[in-house]
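Limitations

Structures in this collection are predictions, not experimental determinations, and the ligand pose is part of the prediction. Treat each record accordingly. The example that follows, with iron/sulfur cluster as the small molecule, is included so readers can see exactly what is and is not provided: the inputs are given verbatim, and the output is the predicted complex.
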Amino acid sequence: MRRNAVVVGYWKTIKYSVHALLGAAEEHELHKDIDFYLVSVDDLLRTVNELRTKYSRIMYMQTLLTTDLLSKHEKLAEINRKLRDLGIVSVAGGPHATGDPFGTVISLGFEYAFLGDVEDLLPQVVELGLNYRDPSSVVGVFYVDDSGKFVFRGRGFTKELDKYPPFSPKLNLFSPIEITRGCRYSCSFCQVSYIHTAITRHRSIENITFWCKYLLSRGIRDLRFITPDALSYEDPRTNRDFIELLSELSKLRTAGGKVYFGTFPSEMRPEKINQEVSRFLRTHVDNKRVNIGAQTGSDELLKKIKRGHTSEDVLNALEALSSVGLSAEVDYIIGLPDETLEDQQLTIEHMRKVISKGGRIRIHYFIPLPGTPYALRNPSEISTQFRRELMRLVGSGKARGNWLNQENAVRELLRLRDEGVILLTSDRARNVLSGSLRKA
Ligand code: SF4
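Predicted complex:
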């Protein structure tokens, strides 16, 4: 009988994080003593029950996005209740657990929330989950102790991305390669700087090309990258920037690689795109379109959300790109807190200018994400006129986006916030623990 198993909840929206987690497990050689099982939320309890006859110790590990709560929060709470009865420990990490450790532990019922980056601390977290370790000895965990006190043990911070594979080679679970983690811009609506901090860490060029070659050797030709801002790549250890990175990556094109840079699943900040950069991209990447974050056409609102660029920067970027035959899909967020009717009008005008310069529009709806300064804010109302103009752009084929679904999802998330599934603050958490939930 094997001693230990880790059951990992696994579904589409979190798959890249799970692949990276398993890559870190390989690096720590945890597979020697532990079997990892990836299961859907629906199969989780059944799998654990089956594994109980084969293993003496089992833990449940989960990466969580806030938006996953919509379809899964009741199921997760039920799983955790049942696992607790069986004496099986559950640990949740990822953006939601980091942003709302109170709700993760108190409402979703995980025994521990893990805050921040887990790679360096993974062996300790697994030992904790398998009951070999005291929680007070594990950096990054949050829990409620026996006396009902909230205990924070700091947060995990992975300094060296190079130490870990970007995915799990052993299990053939591949992902785009994370080349940069953390973001210094700290935009008010975005979790990246608050979950991974504003300290940027870069995978070295040697390490990135090593993993690209590995992917090519496994028959994967499309080389994609995860980064908050593709053009901010600049490794301080070597001062080598995205120009040198792309110069190296572009050599892999002769071996059949296709380099997709500044496009899904990452993007570029507009103020960094100029003629020179565009010309360079034109000859070094395979994508003909990049993704740019504009967020709004209102400069006042850009200041409020702390974006650090202007609406003009977006238009200049599009001109520079189109001068060399490239184009862009431009992301906007509608319903941002404090968005006025005038801001909405400016955004529509801005979208039209972007379209006239060859850009395509992608519309998102504001989601108040835990861990961000806007976690307790509500979306601004979308005026009828604004809604009509947006629908017109979508109807003309110049704009797309999941904003209508997101609008409904946010309504649900606000309900979860009101009902205390999402808790966010210690006051709210105490109220739930004492049975008197207070509304926001
Ligand atoms: S929106 Fe982009 S630039 Fe702003 S904090 Fe997030 S990742 Fe950084």
